[in-house]
């Protein structure tokens, strides 16, 4: 006699898994896949700040170090570097290095913030037309 097919029960999210506090409706495996798609700077600068659980779970240096030569979310970059005194402890050489690293990331809004933060320029030559046909050099 053939046995009736077994019904597969849907897995219920595990309440003690870190993802339950962020996405209670998702399976932990799906939450892990979503986070796996994020850049490490996105995790360090944004995702960890969702709540205490994500901050604790993603607390290792891999998830807490922001790499300035890679894209950083502009809102997080500006929030840090435009605070008064953010560059006070940096020497001129370190300020220039900050600008070089941010330029290497290719995120123009962050480069504008970095230049403003270190005090190396006042106006944006790309926006006020002084670059003429040389804009491609800066991009």
Would you write up a description of this structure?
This protein is mainly α. The chain folds into two domains: 18-64, no CATH class; 74-138, no CATH class. The protein contains eight helices and no strands. The longest helix has 14 residues, at 92-105. The chain is elongated and about 80 Å long. It starts with 27 loop residues before the first helix and ends with a helix. The model has no long low-confidence stretch (mean pLDDT 79). This is F-box domain-containing protein. One of its GO terms (cellular component) is endoplasmic reticulum. GO terms for molecular function: phospholipase activity.
Q: How do you describe this structure in short?
A:
The protein is mainly alpha-helical and 139 residues long.
Features:
single chain, 139 residues, mainly alpha, 2 domains, 8 helices, elongated, phospholipase activity, F-box domain-containing protein
Write down the domain tally.
Answer: 2
User: Please, what is the average pLDDT?
Assistant: 79
Terminal CA distance: 72 Å
* Number of DSSP helical runs: 8
- Radius of gyration, whole Å: 22 Å
Largest sheet: none
Order of helices and strands: HHHHHHHH
How many β-strand stretches? 0
> What fraction, in percent, of the residue positions are helical?
40-55%
Shape: elongated
Structural class: mainly alpha
Give the low-pLDDT segments: none
* Percent range for β-strand residues: under 5%
GO molecular function: phospholipase activity
Protein name: F-box domain-containing protein
